Amino acid sequence: MSRRIAIASDHAAYSMKAELADWLREMGHDVIDLGTNGPESVDYPDYGYRLGHAIAKREAEFGVAICGSGIGISIAVNRVPEARCALVSEPLSARLARNHNDANVVALGARVIGIEMAKACVVTFINSEFDGGRHAGRVDKLTHPERTQP
């Protein structure tokens, strides 16, 4: 099934982003590349927010966020309430992020995992479904923290 996927990275991950974007296109997905596109130093929050807002505006069904460790860009994406970004480094976490958390963005660390593991995580993520059920109320609280219990 073809998906619309937004992808963004900082300078530390631009080559992984480019390779993943090309690979996703070859698989038939519609890819929105939100940058960056070179090794010049940039601020990862700018690209994380860009990706989070693309998800919030429903410009893309899923997102792929990449920085050196994956940590900083995932924090930025998660500042957008409609975005649920999970940092993963192997396929099991990618699947559980979708199954249990209805994550719509997967974050990767370009300095932590290689391209083949990144591909395995991304393909697992986009091919997994949200289980719903007991997880639905919890996921709703991620978007609406005011609904949480003190």
Topology:
Elements: E1 4-9, H1 14-26, E2 30-33, H2 44-56, E3 62-67, H3 71-77, E4 85-87, H4 91-101, E5 105-109, H5 115-127, H6 134-143
Parallel strand pairs: 1-2, 1-3, 3-5, 4-5
In short:
GO terms for molecular function: ribose-5-phosphate isomerase activity. The chain is α/β, with parallel strands linked by helices.
Account of the protein in words:
The protein has helices at residues 14-26, 44-56, 71-77, 91-101, 115-127, 134-143, and strands at residues 4-9, 30-33, 62-67, 85-87, 105-109. It is an alpha/beta fold and 150 residues long. It has a single domain, classed as Sugar-phosphate isomerase, RpiB/LacA/LacB (Ribose 5-phosphate Isomerase B, Chain: A, 3-Layer(aba) Sandwich). The protein has a 5-stranded parallel β-sheet, sandwiched between helices. Helix 2 (44-56) packs parallel to helix 3. The relative contact order is 0.17.
Describe the structure using short key phrases.
five-stranded parallel β-sheet, 45% helix, 6 helices, Ribose 5-phosphate Isomerase B, Chain: A, alpha/beta, 150 residues, 5 strands
How much beta, percentage-wise? Answer: 15-25%
CATH 4th-level superfamily: Sugar-phosphate isomerase, RpiB/LacA/LacB
Secondary structural class: alpha/beta
Strand order of the largest sheet: 2-1-3-5-4
Describe the biggest sheet?
5 strands, parallel
CATH architecture: 3-Layer(aba) Sandwich
Q: What distance lies between the first and last C-alpha atoms, to the nearest angstrom? A: 41 Å
